[in-house]
Amino acid sequence: QVQLVESGGGLVQAGGSLRLSCAASERTFSKYAMGWFRQAPGKERAFVAVISWNGGAKDYADSVKGRFTISRDNAKNTVYLQMHYLEPEDTAVYYCAADTRGYYSSSIYTDTSRYDSWGRGTQVTVSS
Q1: Of 95, 86, 82, residue with least CA distance to 37
Q2: What is the pLDDT of residues 31-53, one digit of tens each?
Q3: Confidence of residue 26 (pLDDT cuts 50, 70, 90)
Q4: CA angle at residue 18 from 28 to 62, to 5 degrees?
Q5: Nearest C-alpha neighbor of 65 from the set 45, 47, 40
Q6: How far apart are CA 65 and CA 18, in angstroms?
C-alpha cells in the first residue's frame, strides 16, 4: 500500500479558497489514479474528485464542479485539490486515496470501495 498524508485544511469563510495536498511515500504513486473524498459529521464518506495516473482523465462530484480542481505532480509524488467559492456544506474531513489495482489505467472510479490506500484526512471548515 501507498502511505498518504494530506495537508492544507483549515478554517475559511464562505467564498474563500483552500488548496489541499496529498503527499505519497513512494514513486509508484505515479502509476495510480488518485481520488479525493470527504466525510461530514454523521454522513458517509463521499466522492469529490479523481484523476488518472497521468492526469488525462478527471471527474468531479456534481456538487463541486466548477469550484474544485484536482491536479497532480508525479515528480513530487503529490496530488492537489484546489477549492474555490467554498460553502458551509463543504465542511468535512477530506481524504485522499490511491487506486493501486489500476496502475497505468485510464479508467477512473468514484466508488470508495475501489481505493485501497487512504490518508488520515485533513479537516476543512467553512464558516458562514
Answers
A1: 95
A2: 999 999 999 999 999 999 999 99
A3: confident
A4: 80
A5: 47
A6: 15
